[in-house]
Specification:
By secondary structure, this protein is mainly alpha-helical. Helices cover 69% and strands 1% of the residues. The protein has helices at 2-11, 14-45, 49-52, 67-73, 78-108, 115-127, 132-141, 159-170, 174-182, 187-198, 200-216, 219-224, 234-251, 269-299; strands at 257-258, 266-267. It has a two-stranded antiparallel ribbon with strand order 1-2. Strand 1 (257-258) and strand 2 form a beta hairpin. Helix 13 (234-251) runs antiparallel to helix 14. The radius of gyration is 25 Å and the shape is flat. It is a multi-pass membrane protein.
């Protein structure tokens, strides 16, 4: 077997080998370009703000410090805001993915007479929205202003996610669903006990999309819950910190200003921005390895069909 593999390698042309080497060089370059900004952000976030103004911070902090993180975590509302972000991400992802999957299952059924009309109705919303002001008025009339549920209900159905899950369901063997009906299972029982376990790759992919969107969202907090500090999220608090630091730095003679909390910590908009990026990214990076296998499968939906 080893000799056969060696003979195959020898039979490869020079062009094929050059193509492989080119691919390797290209992928290494792409990896460096992709990873370097994040590594640089980590280095800046752990570097002294006064020293970082000089520049020259690339892959490693020149003067190690935790002052940037102390400044952000020294804010009194940051921990409660993190809890709200966690709750809206978990609850919003579960509710959205489950409801979107139910809709996808319904539209995927050939016996559903209005499946094309309903599909076009939802696809239409991907291209045309009601606008910011009508949406705000609708949210107000629904009584969702200054409410936690404004983070959940407006995004309960994702049209793109519905299409992804529907495509996966349509690829399932019809015999599996038919056997469930023969055994006396209803549509909801078939969906919960048969369809959901078989669509884990698609569900994991969509869950990652929804979770990232929920975790990074701050504009809805600004629109609907900015007057209620108890419903503020981590991203919104970080945005306010960055806005405050930028305003203070612009108003002063230099780019460095002292923390107003009395700790004497010196920060800059650049160091705060880098620290905020790391804080906001770490939770998602911790979740991704657990869904990576399903995510890769879900991204290849429709590539190979049995």
């Amino acid at each position: 077997m080893l000799a056969l593999k060696k003979s195959r390698l020898r039979r490869r042309s020079l062009g094929d080998r050059l193509f492989d080497y080119g691919n390797i060089v290209f992928m290494i370059g792409l990896m460096i370009v992709t990873i370097y900004p994040f590594v640089n952000m980590i280095a800046v976030s752990f570097n002294d703000a006064n020293d970082a103004v000089r520049g020259g911070i690339y892959l490693w902090p020149r003067l190690w410090t935790l002052d940037n993180y102390s400044y952000i975590f020294g804010e009194s509302d940051i921990y409660h805001a993190t809890l709200i972000s966690f709750l809206r991400t978990v609850l919003g992802t579960i509710v959205s993915v489950f409801c979107t999957a139910m809709l996808a299952f319904t539209i995927s059924r050939q016996e559903f007479v209005l499946r094309k009309a309903v599909t076009m109705f939802f696809v239409f919303t991907m291209y045309f929205s009601g606008g910011l002001i009508p949406t705000y008025l609708l949210i107000r009339d629904l009584g969702l202003i200054n409410s936690f549920w404004v983070y959940i209900f407006p995004g309960i159905i994702g049209v793109f996610n519905m299409i992804v899950i529907r495509s996966f369901i349509e690829g399932l063997p019809d015999g599996i669903l038919e056997s469930a009906r023969i055994d006396g299972a209803g549509e909801f029982t078939t969906f919960v006990r048969v369809v959901l376990p078989l669509t884990i790759p698609a569900m994991a992919t969509v869950s990652l999309f929804v979770a990232v969107g929920q975790w990074n969202s701050w504009f809805d907090v600004f629109l609907y819950n900015s007057s209620n500090i108890k419903l503020s999220t981590l991203q919104y608090e970080l945005m306010k910190i960055l806005q405050t630091s930028t305003t203070a730095a612009t108003a002063s003679a230099g780019d460095i200003y002292q923390s107003q909390g009395g700790s004497g910590t010196s920060v800059t908009p650049t160091s705060i921005r880098a620290t905020m990026t790391i804080i906001a990214s770490v939770p998602i990076l911790m979740v991704y390895p657990f869904v990576q296998r399903y995510f890769v499968q879900g991204m290849t939906l429709g590539g190979v069909k049995g």
